[in-house]
Amino acid sequence: MSKQFAVIGAGRFGLSVAKTLHELEHEVLVIDKDEERIQENMNVATQVVQADSTDEMALKSLGVRNFDVVVVAIGQDIQASILTTLILKELGVETVVVKAQNQNHAKVLYKIGASKVVFPERDMGARVAHNLVTPNILDFIELSDEYSIFEIIASEKLAGKDLVNLNIRARFGCNVMAIKNTDKINIAPSAKDVIHEGDIMVVIGHNDDLKKFQDFVINGKR
Fold first, then answer.
1. Residue 205 host element (H or E)
2. In this structure, are residues 113 and 6 in contact, taking their beta carbons and an 8 Å threshold?
């Protein structure tokens, strides 16, 4: 199901989040006050606009209150980051995810209502984007431009079926590297190993194939 995201700040982190969300077929609005940066990145999202995020009227006119999630990815300007977050919460944005420079910055952001605070050195933009879109995905690691590994929570659609039945490699082109549950981790599971609802599956594959498998796990799509 497509969601609407706004990303404020077209730096490296913000563009990484926006591009990944857009590739996952979600509507994405990118906002930055730098005209040159906007012109250079017109194709990374559904819409890219120049605006000052510390101007409440500007954000209101862009309709940010209607977005499912707003990501504040402002660079070094901590004051602008805090003020933007405050304005977004006052406008009624339910989920605001903010990039923080340090722990003190993060504490302030949480106090004024940030839903989640991320540190770019620990949370790659692509990983954050996948987690925003799909709560079932616990972790996402890019191996290259085309291949990744993710951890996904097994839904009821997979429950009670073994890997032979699911035939994940043939149907989706992905490989299950491990299955984790509360008791143990099963490295290199065999074809007869049964998946239970809530198990964590560690899966490797081409990004397109992982997307198809993700849709199957979440929505039952094939």
1. strand 200-206
2. no
